[in-house]
Write a structure and sequence with these properties.
Helices cover 72% and strands 3% of the residues. It is mainly α. The protein has one domain: Up-down Bundle (Four Helix Bundle (Hemerythrin (Met), subunit A)). It starts with 12 loop residues before the first helix and ends with a strand.
């Protein structure tokens, strides 16, 4: 069990938490395909909890390494970019739109995915293992996911019409790569 506290191990404790995040994200995608949106959201939040703890564990036990940084970004892409975009596309766009409007919804979804991927790559290029800055430049992908889930809930409970989701998704996607400073928790 020494490998759990070895920073050079790909299966150290922090990375194991990241693997749980990845598993939760994959299961969330599956349940979205089954139109079980409630369970998908629960799994996404479980993935989010493990994302918080993997970083705290990596810093506390000095387990940060390049592999862990890349693994964490992959998990973030899956759980905080693909899952919420797929949820919105399946739950809102595909049931509200057809034809050209559905193509526009698809283009906006691709825009958000590319924005999230760009944000994560940029973060990896500019971060060093074990270091934590006081703030993020641009909205981090977990916060972007929370904002998208709030948009999903607002539309689900008829607080906003479906076409407003287009504009909110574009705005949140833009904010991922903006110069907005967000305090690091």
């Amino acid at each position: 069990m020494k490998f759990l506290y070895n920073s050079s191990s790909h299966f150290n404790l922090a990375n194991m938490f990241t693997f749980v995040n990845i598993t939760a994200g994959l299961l969330a995608l599956y349940f979205i395909t089954q139109e079980n949106f409630f369970l998908a959201i629960i799994l996404a939040w479980i993935g989010g909890a493990f994302d918080i703890f993997d970083g705290k564990i990596a810093r506390k036990y000095k387990l940060s390494n390049e592999f862990g940084i890349q693994l964490d970004s992959f998990a973030d892409f899956l759980s905080f970019v693909l899952v919420p975009v797929f949820l919105i596309f399946q739950a809102i766009y595909s049931s509200s739109f057809s034809g050209v409007m559905l193509l526009i919804a698809g283009a906006i979804s691709v825009y958000y995915v590319i924005s999230g991927l760009r944000r994560l790559i940029e973060f990896n290029i500019n971060s060093d293992a074990g270091e934590v800055s006081r703030h993020f430049i641009g909205v981090p992908t977990p916060l972007g996911a929370i904002l998208l889930w709030l948009v999903y809930l607002a539309q689900t409970y008829s607080l906003i019409p479906s076409f407003i989701v287009f504009f909110l998704m574009v705005a949140i996607g833009w904010s991922l790569n903006s110069k907005i400073k967000v305090p690091h928790p």
